[in-house]
């Protein structure tokens, strides 16, 4: 699957949903709690072990900063991009300015 | 990502949290999303065309904004304070369109082909009666979300294009979803057609902070509303803060609930912020610098910097109250000379900015350079510690005998004079020096001002090149409706009223 900003992603068999904020070109393999993550939430959930909780409002990305997903509906993790875990970006607590 | 998705997220997580209005009777996030979905149904008749909003800050503002975002129409807030001629010209440019505005703004429009007009109250009752649209917002980040007219202090207003990606980047990079406490409330007194009115609405909603709207700013009402609504956060422009400080001084209110006061939208005179810091020691002050074209703030001076600058006797640190602090983590700011070369720390030039929230784009064309930099047309410098100093619009910098003088530095000294209520400094052409420094001053009630006394006052505080060659005494300064001094008008010698 190719990611592009604005693409909405659902996971088969879990409640988790994401919106792509940043994407790199090329095909990627995204899974959430062991199930594929795609535009229509199709596919079956393999009996993989779910670990951790993906939280609504958190942004998940790779270390290189090339891919970023915003969680719009929470669910079980882990969130994997090509087998590597996407981690929650620490919120930069900025004082409000407007 | 669409800005309406920001509302979708927070309204799905905490639908019952109050979004707009009174803590008890206000509109919840869930109700706001519902109203926006109904507004979408009303907006289906002119797909892709801008929705003009000429109303004041009421609930109709966010409902129309999010309705337009889901309907795929750019939201174009326009000033209800414009004279009939410019107002009509601006509407004409956007035809075919729908205009939501009060009757007093629309009565002189006459019949225009392709224009549908409705007033905000009618719009709201039509929304309530409408069927809910089930459509999902278009997630294309490139779609234009908001069209804003720049303030045009230096020339004709331009239409800045803010795409969904600019606004969502701004919100997501600095705001934690529903991170605000349940007791937090923001008092918004900037109008919907100001970038801070739009950005402030989005960040407060996404952060879960209740918004209290004050449609027509008046200092006493602001203070009363802040007390009654237990306001914890507020944003004001410098002229508003000066008037608020006067009211607080007079009536002795301390605003015990207020925790956070941000200001921006123009240069803050140092005496005003120093007085505000002294009157409200429990409040966190934030100075924010940004432009319409940069989706609001790009640099901020935070609460700690305010406190340490006020407490210290070190003049270098004290002066930071005149800076706009440091760039946001997601933004880069540099200073370039007129040939486009980046200059060293401490050297003045033009401020350039780059980052995901920077639009730098007008209805006609993008103004970003090949590397994504946007020239602000603001003069400034960045010191060795990374603090950004904005010296005003490039056009306002006075070049006297080859030396660049910042009007703000001289204005700060002028308004410290006990007999001077307000002051603006500008340059006028001169054969010998290129430009001469001229000060326009407004005396305090019952005071008279002599040119020589003003010159002596400045000469005892600043280098001699800063001393005004001429002092004009006026009854008031020409300002736009958000308090920005119109130096262009002063230079042209028009509009200003000479004191008798």
UniProtKB/TrEMBL annotation, chain A:
The lineage of its organism: Bacteria, Bacillati, Actinomycetota, Actinomycetes, Streptosporangiales. It comes from Actinomadura rudentiformis. This is Uncharacterized protein.
UniProtKB/TrEMBL annotation, chain B:
One of its GO terms (molecular function) is medium-chain fatty acid-CoA ligase activity. Residues 14-362 form the AMP-dependent synthetase/ligase domain. It comes from the Bacteria. Keywords: Ligase. Coiled coil: none annotated. Belongs to the ATP-dependent AMP-binding enzyme family. This is Long-chain fatty acid--CoA ligase.
């Amino acid at each position: 699957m190719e990611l592009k900003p604005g693409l909405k992603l659902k996971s088969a068999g879990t409640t988790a949903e994401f919106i792509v904020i940043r994407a790199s070109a090329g095909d990627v393999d995204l899974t959430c709690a062991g199930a594929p993550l795609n535009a229509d939430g199709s596919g079956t959930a393999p009996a993989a072990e779910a670990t951790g909780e993906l939280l609504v409002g958190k942004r998940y990305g790779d270390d290189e900063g090339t891919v970023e997903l915003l969680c719009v509906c929470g669910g079980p993790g882990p969130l994997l991009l090509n087998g590597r875990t996407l981690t929650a970006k620490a919120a930069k607590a900025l004082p409000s300015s407007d | 990502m669409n800005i309406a998705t920001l509302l979708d997220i927070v309204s799905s997580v905490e639908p019952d949290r109050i979004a707009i209005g009174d803590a008890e009777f206000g509109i919840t996030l869930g109700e706001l999303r519902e109203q926006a979905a109904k507004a979408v149904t009303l907006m289906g008749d002119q797909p892709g065309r801008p929705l003009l909003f000429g109303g004041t800050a009421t609930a109709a503002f966010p409902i129309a904004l999010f309705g337009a975002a889901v309907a795929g129409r750019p939201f174009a807030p326009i000033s209800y304070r414009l004279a009939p001629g410019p107002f009509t010209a601006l509407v004409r440019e956007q035809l075919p369109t729908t205009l939501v505005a009060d009757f007093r703004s629309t009565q002189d429009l006459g019949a225009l082909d392709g224009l549908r007009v409705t007033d905000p109250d009618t719009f709201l009752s039509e929304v309530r009666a409408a069927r809910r649209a089930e459509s999902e917002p278009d997630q294309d980040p490139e779609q234009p979300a908001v069209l804003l007219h720049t303030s045009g202090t230096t020339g004709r207003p331009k239409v800045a294009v803010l795409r969904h990606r600019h606004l969502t980047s701004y919100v997501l990079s600095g705001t934690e979803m529903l991170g605000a406490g349940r007791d937090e409330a923001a008092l918004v007194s900037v109008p919907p057609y100001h970038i801070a009115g739009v950005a402030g609405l989005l960040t407060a909603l996404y952060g879960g902070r209740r918004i209290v709207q004050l449609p027509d700013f008046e200092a006493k009402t602001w203070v009363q509303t802040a007390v009654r609504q237990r306001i914890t956060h507020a944003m004001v422009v410098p002229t508003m803060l000066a008037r608020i400080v006067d009211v607080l001084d007079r009536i002795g209110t301390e605003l015990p609930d207020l925790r956070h006061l941000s200001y921006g939208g123009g240069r803050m005179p140092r005496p005003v912020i120093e007085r505000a810091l002294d009157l409200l020691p429990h409040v966190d002050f934030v100075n924010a610098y940004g432009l319409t074209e940069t989706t609001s703030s790009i640099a901020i001076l935070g609460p700690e910097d305010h406190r340490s600058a006020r407490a210290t006797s070190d003049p270098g640190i004290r002066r930071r109250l005149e800076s706009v602090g440091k760039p946001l983590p997601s933004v880069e700011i540099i200073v370039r000379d007129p040939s486009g070369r980046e200059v060293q720390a401490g050297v003045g030039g033009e401020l350039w900015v780059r980052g995901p929230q920077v639009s730098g784009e007008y209805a006609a064309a993008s103004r970003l350079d090949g590397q994504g930099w946007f020239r602000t047309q603001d003069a400034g410098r960045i010191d060795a510690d990374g603090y950004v100093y904005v010296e005003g619009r490039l056009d306002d910098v006075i070049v006297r005998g080859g030396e660049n003088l910042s009007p703000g530095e001289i204005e700060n000294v002028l308004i410290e004079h006990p007999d001077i209520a307000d002051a603006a400094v500008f340059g006028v052409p001169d054969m010998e020096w290129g430009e001469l420094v001229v000060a326009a001053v407004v005396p305090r009630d019952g005071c008279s001002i002599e040119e020589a006394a003003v010159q002596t006052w400045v000469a005892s505080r600043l280098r001699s090149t800063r001393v005004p060659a001429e002092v004009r005494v006026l009854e008031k300064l020409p300002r736009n409706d958000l308090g920005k001094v119109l130096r262009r008008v002063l230079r042209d010698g028009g509009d200003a009223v000479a004191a008798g």
